[in-house]
Amino acid sequence: MIELYHNDMSVCAQKVRMTLAEKRLPWENHHLDLRAGDQQQPEYLKLNPNAVVPTLVDNGKVIIESTVICEYLDDAYPAPSLRPAQAAARAQMRLWTKQLDETIHAATSVISNGIAFRHQKLVWGMERLKEFHEQMPDPARRERSWENITKGVESRFFPDAIKRFDKLLSDMEAMLAATPWLAGEEYSLADIGYAPYITRLEHLQLQFMWERRPHIPAWFDRLRERSSYIEAFDRWRNPSYEKLMMEKGTEAQARVRSIIAAN
């Protein structure tokens, strides 16, 4: 039996749900309310000491880190394969997923919190906000989160996060101009991995970042046509979060445009 500890709008959880859907694997749902701090509860920390989602438990085996989870699922349940058959294309896939863990996910957290999610936490008041951050095990993540929440789009981390995504979108456009999928001719874990991040930019009303990059929306349309996208995203939509991202994202557009123009 597969169990998944996840959150409806978590980008990392979304890609694991999409992988499970591609594999047609049933799983037991453990939904965590991240705003309530479910991920910091002692029982959950026994599974995932990093206090993040998702965590996958497969017949008692605990797997953490979303990229690792997706590769584990492709190893443990090999049909249908979500990695290219050729070694060179498989290496290309891993170069894409490696970026997610190295820079893209952190940039997404900066942008999401700086624009939208900070407003959910500011209403707590400073005392509770400090307690929330004191429970974060990673000091670098704690520092980024504190500044992004308290300063928003004026955070010192915000411009670099926008620039990183602008570079990513340029790289994606160049690849997708030549091939239908990020790792070449075959749909793979690379496409699954980036689906949540492009979805997040869309929710934050930042689609203009690819308005002159036509191959990205074409790729995104192909992704959204897959039943796995419906299972992983559409069935877990959170209207209140989407409304917040739309409203605050619209307000932040001028700031984002100015950063890109100066880049």
Write the layout of secondary structure elements.
Blueprint: E1 2-6, H1 11-23, E2 28-31, H2 42-47, E3 55-58, E4 61-64, H3 66-76, H4 87-122, H5 126-134, H6 139-151, H7 158-176, H8 189-203, H9 215-224, H10 227-232, H11 239-262
Parallel strand pairs: 1-2
Antiparallel strand pairs: 1-3, 3-4
Write up this protein.
This protein has 2 domains: 2-76, Glutaredoxin, CATH 3.40.30; 87-262, Glutathione S-transferase Yfyf (Class Pi), Chain A, domain 2. The chain contains 11 helices and 4 strands; from the N terminus they run βαβαββααααααααα. It has helices at 11-23, 42-47, 66-76, 87-122, 126-134, 139-151, 158-176, 189-203, 215-224, 227-232, 239-262; strands spanning 2-6, 28-31, 55-58, 61-64. A 4-stranded mixed beta sheet has the order 2-1-3-4, with helices on one face. Helix 4 (87-122) runs antiparallel to helix 7 (158-176). The model has no long low-confidence stretch (mean pLDDT 96).
